[in-house]
Write a structure and sequence with these properties.
Layout: H1 3-15, H2 23-30, H3 34-46, E1 50-54, E2 58-63, H4 74-90, H5 93-109, H6 112-119, H7 138-147, E3 149-156, E4 162-174, E5 179-185, E6 190-195, E7 199-208, H8 213-230
Antiparallel strand pairs: 1-2, 3-4, 3-7, 4-5, 5-6
Helix pairs in contact: 1-3, 2-3, 4-5, 5-6
């Protein structure tokens, strides 16, 4: 297999599934060594492909410079409009503003017929009951989550008792009546779910847990679904014993 053909095959494999794809797995599919795969990844990055990941963790294709921009079917466009309008309803101010700006940018780049369809979409979203506004900056919490750094929370339970938790923030989930942070809690030595309206304050630390957030979040969501299926939920955020 020529080098150029192998680079094409690497890109094809990276496009499949959600990743991350390990070098060992790619090497087995290609019939080459893992070292050759690492060299190919480096070459593809130099050519403009945006590939996230590193040795020992795996690789995910983030942006494919070989594929042209894609248009939208009418139903796809309606789904985007509905999703962005829902974010405007339930998101914090920064996220709601970003959703509105995304709609404006989308409209500016669509063909005239679809731009008209976006402006006058048959679908919309409105919430009569919204989650309690948090006392903290969700934008800062999202940044800490993306940066994969631990944070210290001052957390109030349902009875008003406050505890300090050092957690690894994994992701935010928006339920009907609450927004929750899924995190690995150092105090409990397990995944826990924290209502963000009960977080009195938090401080970003310098302790990194990169690059473990994505697999930790995936495992936590699987466990939450299993817990939810095994019990009758008592609230809109009931993931079993992991709720705080």
């Amino acid at each position: 297999m020529s080098r150029s053909h192998r680079l094409f095959q690497v890109m094809q494999l990276l496009r499949q599934g959600v990743g991350p794809h390990t070098a060992a797995g790619l090497a087995q599919d290609l019939g080459v060594s893992a070292r050759s795969v690492h060299r190919d990844i480096a070459t593809l990055r130099e050519m403009g492909a945006i590939i996230d990941g590193e040795a020992g963790y795996g690789f995910t294709l983030i942006e494919d410079n070989a594929l042209p921009p894609m248009g939208f079917r009418d139903t796809e466009l309606e789904a985007l409009v509905l999703g962005l309008r829902e974010v405007q309803q339930i998101g914090d101010p920064e996220l709601a503003d970003a959703a509105a700006e995304a709609l404006r940018k989308l409209q500016a780049r669509l063909p005239d017929r679809q731009a008209h369809r976006l402006r006058h979409s048959a679908l919309s979203a409105y919430r009569f009951q919204r989650p309690q506004p948090p006392r903290i900056s969700l934008a800062d919490l999202r940044r800490a989550t993306w940066d994969e750094v631990e944070v210290r929370l001052d957390y109030c339970d349902a009875h008003g008792a406050v505890t300090e938790r050092q957690v690894k923030p994994l992701g935010l989930v928006y339920f009907d009546r609450s927004t929750v942070l899924i995190a690995w809690c150092g105090l409990r030595d397990d995944v826990r779910v924290f209502r963000v309206d009960r977080i009195a304050g938090f401080k970003v630390t310098t302790f990194s847990f990169r690059p473990h957030r994505v697999p930790m979040l995936r495992d936590a969501l699987v466990q939450m679904r299993e817990d939810r299926a095994a019990c009758t939920p008592q609230s809109d955020m009931a993931p079993g014993s992991s709720a705080e």
